[in-house]
Specification:
31% of the residues lie in helices and 24% in strands. The chain is an alpha/beta fold. Helix 3 crosses helix 9 and helix 6 crosses helix 7. 47% of the residues are buried.
């Protein structure tokens, strides 16, 4: 079958791989659409903290497809060497999430990993309370835009979007951000970030330090990405004086029942027009160019792979 195959750590290429076969505990899912995530690039590099993938193997972490019973399901686990960028994949039978909505599979796939990251970061990891202020570091990207919308739907009183892309910050306002601030605007940074109860951090580096410096006492920082830096200067007195609570977050660590509930919430809100996402549909044959675009930054547009 056609698939995006990783033969060496780095970048996959269009190719073929043997068909998956079902087992007593795993089912073959016909893939309808699968989002290209930044974590896919990290995994393919062979340096991701979960360990290197098998070689050769199919890339892709999650997707939407049809199970053997004909149901549309979301899946975020595939059994090696199979992944979601293929015509079919092999997934644990107990891990699929049935999708009871008529939303386009491309949108459902786009909202998968990114939507779950946004929702579980805020509700499960941060335990966001109605009326709190949420600061989004990296608000102009795909996940950041979803964090803005999810925070609003979960009852945040104020949402601050921080980023570097001026056009992306305009879009952040359209999606519900109360205030926007450019990370290179030293004069406006302190006022915009003041009083944040929850910081969703997709950047790390100096931006995280700046946000913590101006945040509310007992701020919860949810660390989700390192798009700006792997390390950040963080003084011990700052952590103590603000009673900072830094919580690392990755979707795959979230229990299945919480992921399932979150994804159904996401799908329902998408069906009602409460969650929107900009997408670009690509075929497996274009995976190399799409991979390079993902590495360079897609300016808030989610690339979704649809089998050729």
């Amino acid at each position: 079958m056609h698939a995006a195959v990783l033969h060496a750590f780095g970048q996959p290429t269009p190719g073929t791989i043997a068909e998956p076969e079902p087992t007593p505990d795993a089912v073959v899912v016909e893939v309808l659409a699968a989002g290209l995530n930044h974590v896919d690039l990290l995994k393919a590099s062979g340096t991701f903290y979960t360990g290197p993938p098998a070689l050769p193997s199919v890339v892709g972490s999650d997707g939407v497809g049809r199970d053997p019973a004909g149901r549309v399901v979301y899946f975020d686990q595939s059994i090696a060497p199979f992944g979601s960028f293929a015509e079919r994949t092999l997934v644990p039978a107990a891990s699929t999430i049935e999708v009871d909505t008529d939303v386009d599979p491309v949108i459902l796939a786009a909202l998968g990993n990114a939507g779950l990251a946004a929702h579980t970061a805020l509700q499960w990891r941060a335990q966001l309370q109605p009326g709190e202020t949420v600061v989004v570091l990296g608000a102009t990207g795909v996940v950041g835009r979803l964090v803005i919308q999810v925070a609003r739907l979960l009852g945040a009183q104020r949402v601050v979007a921080a980023g570097r892309d001026p056009e992306g910050l305009v879009r952040a306002t359209e999606l519900g951000a109360d205030d926007v601030v450019r990370l290179d605007d030293a004069d406006g940074l302190a006022d915009a970030l003041a009083g944040g109860d929850v910081i969703v951090d997709l950047l790390w580096g100096p931006a995280a330090t700046a946000a913590l410096t101006h945040a509310a006492h007992r701020v919860r920082l949810i660390q989700m990405g390192q798009l700006a830096a792997v390390h950040t200067p963080l003084a011990a007195p700052l952590v103590r004086s603000h009673a900072v609570d830094i919580r690392g977050h990755a979707v795959f660590q979230v229990p299945y029942d919480i992921r399932a509930s979150a994804y159904r919430w996401i799908a329902q809100n998408a069906a009602e027009g409460q969650l929107v996402i900009d997408t670009e549909q690509i075929g497996i044959h274009d995976i190399e160019a799409a991979w390079r675009r993902q590495a360079a930054g897609t300016h808030g547009v989610k690339q979704v792979v649809v089998p050729d």
